[in-house]
Amino acid sequence: MHTVTASEPPAPTATHCPYCALQCGMRVAPDATVSGREDFPVNRGALCGKGQSAAEVLSSRVRLTGPLVRSATTGRLEPAGWDEALDTIAAGLDRARTAHGPDANAVFGGGGLTNEKAYALGKFARTVLRTSQIDYNGRFCMSSAAAAGQLAFGLDRGLPFPLEDIPRTGCVLLVGSNPAETMPPALRYLTELKANGGTLIVVDPRRTRTAELADLHLAPRPGTDLALALGMLHLVVAQGRADEAYIRERTSGWEGARAAAMAHWPEYVERVTGVPVPRLREAVDLFAGAGEAMVLTARGPEQQAKGTDTVSAWINLALATGRPGRPHSGYGCLTGQGNGQGGREHGQKADQLPGYRKLADPAARAHVAGVWGVDPDSLPGPGRSAYELLDALGGDIRALLLMGSNPVVSAPRAAHVEQRLRSLDFLAVADVVLSETAELADVVLPVTQWAEETGTVTNLEGRVLLRRRALTPPDGVRSDLEVLRELAARLAPDLEKGFPADPEEVFGELRRASAGGPADYAGISYERLAQGDGVFWPCPEPDGAGTPRLFLDRFAHEDGRARFVPVTHRPAAEEPDAEYPVHLTTGRVVAQYQSGAQTRRVDELNRAAPGPFVELHPRLAARLGVAEGEDVAVVSRRGRAVAPARLTPGIRPDTVFMPFHWPGPGRANTLTNPALDPTSRMPEFKVCAVRVERV
Ligand SMILES: Nc1nc2c(c(=O)[nH]1)N[C@H]1C(S)=C(S)[C@@H](COP(=O)(O)OP(=O)(O)OC[C@H]3O[C@@H](n4cnc5c(=O)[nH]c(N)nc54)[C@H](O)[C@@H]3O)O[C@H]1N2
Ligand SMILES: Nc1nc2c(c(=O)[nH]1)N[C@H]1C(S)=C(S)[C@@H](COP(=O)(O)OP(=O)(O)OC[C@H]3O[C@@H](n4cnc5c(=O)[nH]c(N)nc54)[C@H](O)[C@@H]3O)O[C@H]1N2
Ligand code: SF4
Ligand SMILES: [Mo]
User: Fold this and answer.
1) Is the pLDDT of residue 1 over 70?
2) Which SMART domains match (predicted)?
């Protein structure tokens, strides 16, 4: 068998960053120094501070190097051997299923896990545990864009074109995305766009470092993108700028979408969004007036209780102006986590089987059950979405196996989620560090990380990449794949051989399971990935070219057409009132990653971003009598968080912003509203009502 996992080669190993969806190419030297890869097209050598310092988290100073088991006598997590730890987990999961049935066990995964791990985790839940209760943190990420993309195009792949197309378009409408902080090396595509004479419109309630680059910055109230997009579409129609020929030839459903937009007059849109009508007209001039144009969305419009409809509205605008499926044009979503794309394709999602197949589809069940060597009828049906699953812990769910997420910091209404985790009969966490969620566990398993193991990830462009092992892991840690094999051996011995620890073997099976599905990896091999810059799915044929650009000839619906989805504006789940008069929105800063479990362990990053803060407008601060750096309390119906004030004229005076990277008193998610989008089940991280107080 071909293998690319040499242990500790003398030269630096070409691999990819452990963090975000850009998946920058990097080299890791035997002494663990990291450098950017000039030859990798996505980042051309550039790395952000997180990527540059990623090797710090490999150090045994900050990571877990042996299993921990909660002692019955001290109540504390104490060092234990691997056999004891694995036996304890198997016993905990077995007790739950014996007493309450298979759905009393739940599994929670992550979009940072490699394709192989995500695949094995989904297979483990459905064949070993036979539980329907599995979902993952990607539900909190781009699920609304995925749902809207499916509805419109019949297929969801974050970007349907490579990043290199961005500088070649005429206008980019960037909605609720702040790559200056969240994907710094990708900023190059926007500066090149401008150098080529293209224009950039940024839609964000804050004047971010990204918005500062824009030709036009629209700053709507949080949660009002839906109205904004409808207002732009209204003007496109009223000004006769819709592309009637494209609409006729390549789409269906225009009448309904058009009628809905016509009900959203610009003056009404101004009242709802706070964006003045002249700015709305300027945006339409730039966007509809450009020969080629793109709409790109990220978490701003997506993390709303109406995120799916909101993204549909932005897609409708792109369709009405004839963008998707044309060169250097279209709609795309910027995914977030390292494997945010692949992590949602191979079966850790509640309703899904590998290859982006539907768990409820009998043909999909038969195909995947065939690959797994089990009876299709033995596969459970779809389970609960991430927040609903976390909310059910300690209720009908009695035990949880968690891999690749830190919900104590990152889940909405986090104090409640923390209490649900504490109410479980049994919690097992596999992680590289002792995260805030691992601290609550009955057993913690220390696992290998990116530079110590091989696996594939799929970046925001749909480009499948090989992350290579560059270093030998410390003694005492094992890989997630080994963990699943050992648990299978204990819980369902006849299934153990279905859980190989060799990632290439898992990938071979994933290829077969995905064959014929929407996300078809059948033609992709490790050997091929080791040679080039990755392969874009779908790639059904061995050594086929892959598909960098989707939809050029047809969309993925049966009739080949894209569908308009008629949507109308509605308020956020929680609007400001007398008691909670201010909007809270949340997001990220450049030097910390997600729940901070990894990046809060890097000194250099902590110096750059030492703790939480509340960003507020000087006018709001003056009204409250709050000075720069002074602690303020932010109070919502869920709870109260305290952090220093950071004054900036770049935020709307009716809105405060908090980054969500920290636990403790400044935890933003103590405040957030778990109201869910009816289609994607995405919580409303981007808007809730709060009161701000001096402390
Ligand atoms: N440094 C860093 N980089 C990261 C991550 C990280 O944690 N840290 N995480 C990665 C992951 S998983 C993800 S998902 C991506 C996220 O990448 P982004 O989507 O770029 O990040 P966010 O900061 O969550 O949100 C983007 C912007 O949305 C704006 N916003 C808030 N409310 C609204 C609204 O109602 N409408 C609109 N239009 N905009 C709004 C915020 O002000 C913010 O500037 O980043 C990835 N990269
Ligand atoms: N308020 C607010 N909350 C948000 C968001 C927001 O914008 N606002 N954004 C949401 C979004 S988009 C996301 S993606 C989530 C992310 O939030 P989380 O799911 O908490 O993401 P991470 O902090 O990346 O957690 C990953 C955990 O897995 C561990 N880990 C890393 N690699 C591996 C591995 O290979 N195996 C195992 N077993 N463990 C590993 C890490 O050490 C870490 O503890 O947060 C969501 N929460
Ligand atoms: S931009 Fe993302 S992938 Fe690139 S170095 Fe930074 S965290 Fe890593
Ligand atoms: Mo994300």
Assistant:
1) no
2) Molybdop_Fe4S4
